[in-house]
Amino acid sequence: MLLPFLLAAALGAGRASSTAPIDPRIFAGRAEGERTPFLVVLKEQTDLSGAAAIADRGERRRFVYEALKARADTAQAPLRERLDRAGVRYRPHYLVNMLEVEADASVARELAAREDVASVEANRAARLSRPEPVPPAAEHRSLADTAEPNIEKIRAPEMWARGFMGQGIVIGVADTGFQWDHPALREEYRGSADNHDYAWHDAIHDAVLDNPCGSDAPAPCDDDGHGTGTAGLAVGDGGAGNRIGTAPGATLIGCRNMDRGAGTPARYTECFEWLLAPTDASGANPRPDLGADVISNSWTCPASEGCTDVNVLRAVVENVRAAGVAVVAAAGNEGHIVGGSPSCFTVTEPPATYDAAISVGATFLSDAIASFSSVGPVSVDGSNRLKPDLTAPGVALRTSAPAGGYNESFSGTSGAAPQVAGAVALLWSAVPGLAGDVDRTESALELGAVALRIAASCGGYSGEDVPNPVFGWGRLDAEGAYEVLIPPRADPAALGRHPVARVVRPRR
Q1: Are residues 315 and 458 in the same domain?
Q2: Residue 234 lies in a domain
Q3: What is the C-alpha separation between 145 and 238, in angstroms, rounded?
């Protein structure tokens, strides 16, 4: 191990007259010399403004990936060289030009003094937030060859009847992993028992000792059960009586970003990077053309996880969206309905707070808001941004569970979000010319939603208006969104042309 003064000498080159800020919570409660992970964000970031002018979604995705990767590799080279010489462990990232570093406070101070460093941010892990379990309703289980009640509620089966089941669209699930060979998932999963290339990545490199999946799992593994449930709600289809997913024709790929429910900004970023440009099983040969078209995120990043700056993942989500990838995010489970009135300003955690994410709250099958569903507007970043964008059923859902079974009472905005991700896949399989145009897709989902209101106000927004800070634009209606794009009497030859072009996402 290098002595402190030798380490300082190795890292000291490139100092500036001013020091970048260091989040004081990184080393709070730690002894001097104790190492811990933190993020080093560089000043030089990538301009992706040219991406919007690229019409072909494959070319646009490749442009975004190559531009981000090239800038990060070039800008990080001097810092990586110094870290290598000093024997400091690190992992580079490119969606945001930053490195995850494992070191002590003296190294953090030396890095903060470099002229190419913008800030040193926290990267602590914390547990996934979940609502209290809700027992399933009596009419909950679907025994016939039909979809589950929540899937029927959002009118996905009407899209299936048209022949649109998400075929040709890739949904990436970033979660606790999933059981790939579950009867409701194995036909949708891109990989197989012998080959997980471009289908699976594990961002957990230092799992807790009792984690059944360990670290760097070579095949999909769910250490919690949560990810198997969210994947099922997005794409699951176990046949008659087990039609649990929104887009059963879509392709499933996944990345584990939580260690028994505990995530960090670095883990979240790594999964976004892999889902944008997945690799083979060895982590080599990235293929943006095989990346996710939609990414379903049923997690939030609280300050206790390192998102002490609410904007720490904002550029990550914005850059993914710039590539034409839809980012769907659970709004959070911090809402409280007391006497019919919501607890306002409870959409507080990334990525649900970001304009670039499609944020989703949860409802009962009756269309009443779930008591736990987080409510806007967003106050933590000073924007007063109206969130959530949409709601979907999220109480006592039936979905896939590990060991090939089914969970009869999956609840949370975690359950609502993958249904919206599935609805994006349905629309993009129905209107191929729309695929990759996240703005117009989000507008169609919003304008096609079932408007819901509540006699309450939050942050100057009335619950009687649409959109509002409790339901957003309303409850997801996949068929309704399709009819916004393709009105019932429209010429089918117009698919992907003028009806789509007329949808403009409202400015916020």
Answers
A1: yes
A2: yes
A3: 10
